[in-house]
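_Full entry_
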Amino acid sequence: MRLPTWLAQHLAAFRAVLVFTALLGLAYPLVMVGVGQIPGLHDRAEGSLVRSADGAVVGSGLIGQSFTDADGNPIPRYFQSRPSAAGDGYDPTATAASNLGPESVEDTLPVPGAVDAEGNPDEGTQSLLTQVCARSKAAGELDGVDGRRPFCTPDGFGAVLRVFHRDGLTGPVTRAVSVNQPCPATPFLASFGGVPVECAVPGQDYSGGLITPIRGDAPAEPAVPADAVTASGSGLDPHISPAYASIQVARVARERHTSPDQVRRLVEEHTDGRGLGFLGEPRVNVLELNLALDRELPAGG
């Protein structure tokens, strides 16, 4: 007996659903789970979990974390991770970069008393330049090194002026405003082009002036390395550069009452080289290094 065409087509489609469900819904996942148990892949398949000496899971070797107290302040006895733009910091459900680029140099200052559409106080937005400057200043103060950077003010803002000219883009300077330093701050420059530099008043429109970054007298090669002041593309990078680890050695040694050489030895032991000998840069896993510190050089020991 020959089935009607419509029924034969539906049966064929149903058989295809059953076959692909068995292949892709059952067989393929089971094969992948099996592959994940192969030595060398098992740890990554399980999330590269890192455990403390007592066996408790304290994190992942692939996802960074912050070493701060309840108020968000760095814990001095630990090496600090690089900044993160993922959620509130190293949030794997919100992995992201800041999406700010080289032209992000002017802040939007918070207006006192203003609220957003949800009724929250206006917090303004920091430019990438000011974020870098503030982080560099904080890292310099924490680790006792020169935190100055080109185009940064001494108080950790982007050193940027809005400069107004008599004829628009040309002619004598008629006004200069340090747009990232809200009043009553003292502008980082006393004068520019023969006129006094003003601090910025939140809410005022300075768009008529030319954006003019000021380099300042900071060294061309800052003591605070780039990974200490910028977030990674994913916001989850668990590593820092050996250069960033190096400026933290003296602080960690002091807090743990040990010699810098002892701390430096652990840094070297937890420094990975370039992939395949030529890919990427050497890097230090911060979580694993801090666990080694607690195990071998406990604070107060």
User: Anything to note?
Assistant: The radius of gyration is 27 Å. The chain has a mean pLDDT of 89.
